Predict the 3D structure of the following.
Amino acid sequence: MPLQKSLGLHRQIADLLTDDDTIFIFYTCYPTAFQTKPTSMDHIVIIGNGISGITAARSIRKRSDHKITVISGETDHFFSRTALMYIYMGHMTYEHTKPYEDFFWAKNRIELKRAWVSGIDFDKKQLQFDEGEPPMTYDKLVLALGSKSNKFGWPGQDLKGVQGMYSYQNLEYIEEYTTDISRGVIVGGGLIGIELAEMLHSRGIPTTFLVRESSFWNVVLPAEESAMINREIENNHVDLRLSTELKEIVSDENGRVKAVITGDGETIECQFVGLTAGVSPNVAFVKDTALETNRGILVDEALATNIPDVYAVGDCAEFRLPNGQRRPIEQVWYTGRMMGETVARTLTGERTAYRPGIWFNSAKFFDIEYQTYGWVWAKDRENEQSFYWEEPQLGNRSLRIVYDKDSKKVLGCNAFGLRMRHEVWDKWIGEGTQLQTVVQDLEKAHFDPEFFKRYEQDIQLQYNTEFPSAQITPRKKSLLEKIF
């Protein structure tokens, strides 16, 4: 086989590898397969060891021999941020949240530095550190700075016992300040807020949940799904206060929170306040530099900033031009991973635009799992309609399929309490599959464990009731389903 063709084949194989030990063995045998073209050795420095920064580092190593340094003051090693709540709840230890063994980094020639960066000299390509450490010089810089919890100037927001929930240090703080308390108050409805509510609930801590909106997360969820989550929160004995805002956090004589005052003037005694009213890009230390910022660090489609050889990825990146219906800042785990992969290609000689494909996300609201694919808005848009099914007895499972009201092409779905196959919904939405076909073939998307109750037939029967002119054949239940 000609050398050029052989290397091309090896390159295609290298791009498909995901297991780290397999990548290492393949790299040893075919190191040139990981390079798009011969390059000089650059020192690529990545600030931030979250999913975006680490994915960038791993992908750069797969494709090149560049020197790579990852800097973080948060932890020594990469960990799964989404698993922080399970450390507090006792389901995992910190060691369990690390996807890679500690030796992985040296084996793959990725240098780690535990430090906080205090400043960047973009002209000299140097990083300054706290505590008088010598500066570090870079050739290419990737900013993966993550997010920080929002604060809105509430009186008392910096008292002891008041904390957001984002970093490992936040977790340690919450652990310290929720020991032997009689009540916690959470301010702000959303994914982080409900995670923190579940954390406190797991330790039997009475919790009051202040949500400004009239229904939980109703800026994102349609009314029926939002009402379902209201019920789930209350069923778990959390004191949910809708249409309630925080006015003030009150201090005791030692500078620790002792109560909150709501917008209605009610005083709620507590010893811990969780601030979970969203997050924003963690860009304060680069705001007064030549780097162009808005809410986040402004980047083009290849994640390049206005400064040559400087890139931004993950929660801190803000796209100058909108990417379809997506928001300019995407603070989601999987988009951070995709940005890391994208910037790695550019840094190894193959300029690549960020193209994340069809939107998807997942979360958990106490015991209700949530998946969303495509576009499902809080209210259907002018050209849209929804087919909605909800389990009638317990009301803790539902499926919403949004479709174009003229063409009947499926645009998105919300699944609550039903596990769906990502690749199936991605294909249906990407190909503009008709609503009738999707409901008929719903079994293809089924991903619940064996022996879980199946709901396709119930959903299909309701569809036939609502669409008498486009009938489908409902799925027949298996013998085991009929028995159990």
Q: What stands out?
A: Confidence is low (pLDDT under 50) at residues 1-8.
